[in-house]
């Protein structure tokens, strides 16, 4: 794992998160493992190059991607040679997680099916066992809504104007709204969201802890929604398309806010004005109401 992930070691007690940058991996490090699971589409090609040059390592490599697998990797090997460990892999284990013929499940559900069908792990858990720090309380601040307004791809981002309007509507209903950005974005977004508290996190552990104690997360199609879902926090994901959205947060039930229509003007897709704030607010209200009814019972 990249060094940034090591701060999460205490959250995933079943995993040994190595403090090693992927670019520093070597043949000697990879030889220690019985099975290497690798994404051929990962832009960092250090590991791929080592495997290409080392046939013995390639024999214990499983190539998995999320939605598609390049043909060269499908033919790479029919089944890894991993006799040292007790895995009974399906003959076509090298394949995407998503089944092209199946519509509806999220990538999380596809990954769960993959573990059961191709690793033959009948006990595969849909939700991994988390071990948050003892000083944290799940959804301690139920009234706190975190909005993550940015991603690494501008074309996926909902508008600042739209997020501001939505935040103000939720604040009028009594919710405490905070805008979460990267440290580099903080100064800019304090000007863009003058009525709200703009926060950032020093590391992933800080992000996990803060989301874990929040009530809701609203975001674009980005990692923050997936983290919230994993932590059992209700999410609203603003998505620019209205087709099947396999990449949606898949652990905790989430609401996908899609545009009612999309227009193409001068070669550009216009979708941001057609996101319904009313539907987002209604989802949050229904979620709160359902929680209150459950607590009464």
Architecture overview:
The structure is a single chain. This protein has two domains: 3-118, no CATH class; 141-296, Rossmann fold. The chain is 30% helix and 17% strand. The chain contains ten helices and eleven strands. It has a six-stranded parallel β-sheet, with helices on both faces. Strands 1-2-3 form a three-stranded parallel β-sheet, covered by helices on one side. Helix 6 (160-172) links the parallel strand 4 (141-148) and strand 5. Mean pLDDT is 81; it is low at 75-92.
In short:
The chain has 297 residues and is α/β, with parallel strands linked by helices. It is built from ten helices and eleven strands.
How are the SSEs ordered, and which strands pair?
Layout: H1 27-30, E1 36-38, H2 46-53, H3 55-58, E2 61-65, H4 71-74, E3 95-96, H5 107-118, E4 141-148, H6 160-172, E5 176-181, H7 186-192, E6 197-200, H8 204-212, E7 214-220, H9 223-230, E8 234-238, E9 254-257, E10 263-265, E11 268-270, H10 277-296
Parallel strand pairs: 1-2, 2-3, 4-5, 4-7, 5-6, 7-8, 8-9
Antiparallel strand pairs: 10-11
């Amino acid at each position: 794992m990249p060094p940034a992930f090591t701060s999460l070691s205490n959250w995933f007690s079943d995993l040994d998160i190595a403090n090693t940058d992927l670019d520093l991996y070597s043949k000697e490090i990879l030889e220690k493992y019985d099975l290497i699971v690798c994404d051929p589409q990962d832009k960092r090609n250090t590991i791929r190059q080592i495997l290409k040059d080392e046939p013995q390592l390639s024999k214990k490599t499983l190539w998995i991607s999320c939605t598609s697998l390049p043909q060269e990797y499908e033919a790479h090997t029919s089944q890894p040679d991993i006799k040292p460990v007790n895995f009974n892999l399906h003959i076509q284990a090298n394949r995407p997680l998503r089944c092209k013929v199946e519509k509806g499940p999220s990538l999380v559900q596809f990954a769960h099916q993959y573990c059961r069908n191709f690793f033959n792990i009948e006990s595969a858990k849909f939700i991994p066992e988390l071990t948050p720090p003892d000083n944290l309380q799940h959804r301690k601040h139920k009234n706190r809504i975190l909005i993550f307004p940015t991603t690494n791809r501008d074309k996926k981002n909902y508008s600042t104007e739209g997020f501001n309007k939505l935040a103000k509507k939720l604040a009028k209903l009594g919710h405490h709204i905070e805008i979460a950005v990267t440290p580099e974005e903080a100064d800019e977004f304090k000007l863009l969201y003058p009525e709200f508290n703009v926060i950032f996190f020093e590391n992933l552990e800080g992000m996990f802890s803060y989301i874990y104690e929040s009530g809701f997360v609203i975001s674009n199609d980005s990692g923050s929604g997936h983290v919230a879902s994993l932590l059992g926090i209700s999410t609203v994901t603003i998505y620019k398309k209205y087709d099947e959205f396999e990449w949606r947060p898949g652990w905790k039930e989430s609401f996908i806010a899609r545009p009612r229509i999309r227009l193409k003007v001068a070669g550009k897709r216009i979708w941001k004005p057609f996101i319904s704030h009313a539907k987002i607010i209604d989802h949050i209200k229904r979620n709160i109401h359902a929680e209150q009814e459950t607590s009464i019972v």
